[in-house]
Amino acid sequence: MNLLKKMTALMAILPALALAGDGGFALEHAPDRTNNLVALQHGAKLFVNYCLNCHAASMMRYNRLRDLGLSENQIKANLLFTSDKVGGLMTVAINAKDAKEWFGVAPPDLSVIARAKASDIGSGPDWIYTYLRSYYEDDSRPTGWNNMLFPNVGMPHVFWELQGVQHAVYTDRKDAQGKAEHKFDHFALVKPGSLSKVEYDDAVADLVAYLDWMGEPAKNIRHQLGLWVLLFVGGMVVLSWRLNASYWKEIK
């Protein structure tokens, strides 16, 4: 009975756990754009220009971007660094030892970051979407930045020129026992970026869609094939049922 109660309690809190980040910060839902080629192309451009300087995607080749509707010439002209080749892997020149010294930890490979986060907390895209929108200025940190979802993060805010500079605003509240708590309330934009809030959120959604797609490029095709397979199996079940009925009718 005790085990049953514990399992019931665990099932009750699982949805809350799936909506919380590393520091208990609520996740926001990322728009699903994995079927939108224009969004995925824009996300790939953002990834190459802003993320690939430090973070590798060593399981992905540039020429796989042809699946997003890009030609090899477009990939070469817009998404390749000088020394890279279309058939090459998305690697970085930064030394892992230097990166660890600068940031405190070597930047992780982002090939399957969305899938990895999904296995950890249930929603990789939501985590990344919230994370990239939760940076705020913090002079106490070595990089000058902190993150509400990932407290004391070593990675600086690489998108600050797009988003702008925001501060975390806290308020004093009382909990159920009447004890005062200093809690996060909202972000206040103190220096605008080159994009408005809506434009920045839109750009982040495109990048998240690309990271999600990169983790399993064949996922959409697999889902489409799965639907056709289910329809075929369903048709065969109906046909077999009617043939079986017709066969036994003749015997009787």
What structural keywords apply?
252 residues, alpha+beta, two-stranded antiparallel sheet, disordered N terminus
Would you give an account of this structure?
By secondary structure, the chain is of the alpha+beta class. It is built from nine helices and six strands; from the N terminus they run H-H-E-H-E-H-H-H-E-E-H-E-E-H-H. The chain has helices at 2-18, 37-51, 72-79, 96-103, 113-121, 124-131, 160-163, 197-215, 219-251; strands at residues 57-61, 89-90, 135-137, 145-147, 164-174, 180-192. The strands form three sheets. Strands 1-2 form a two-stranded antiparallel sheet. A two-stranded antiparallel sheet has the order 3-4. A hairpin with a 7-residue loop joins strand 3 and strand 4 (145-147). The longest helix has 33 residues, at 219-251. The radius of gyration is 24 Å and the shape is extended. It starts with a helix and ends with a helix. Mean pLDDT is 81; it is low at 1-21.
Summarize the helices and strands and which ones pair or pack.
Blueprint (H helix, E strand, L loop, with lengths): L1 H17 L18 H15 L5 E5 L10 H8 L9 E2 L5 H8 L9 H9 L2 H8 L3 E3 L7 E3 L12 H4 E11 L5 E13 L4 H19 L3 H33 L1
Antiparallel strand pairs: 1-2, 3-4, 5-6
Helix pairs in contact: 2-8, 5-6, 6-8
Beta-strand percent range = 5-15%
Largest sheet: 2 strands, antiparallel
Contiguous low-pLDDT stretches (5 residues minimum) are: 1-21
Main sheet strand line-up:
1-2
Q: What is the count of helical runs? A: 9
Distance between the first and last residues' Cα:
54 Å
Reading the helices and strands in chain order gives HHEHEHHHEEHEEHH
The helicity comes to 40-55%
Rg, alpha carbons: 24 Å
Alpha-beta classification: alpha+beta
Overall mean confidence score, pLDDT: 81
Number of strands: 6
**Overall geometry:** extended
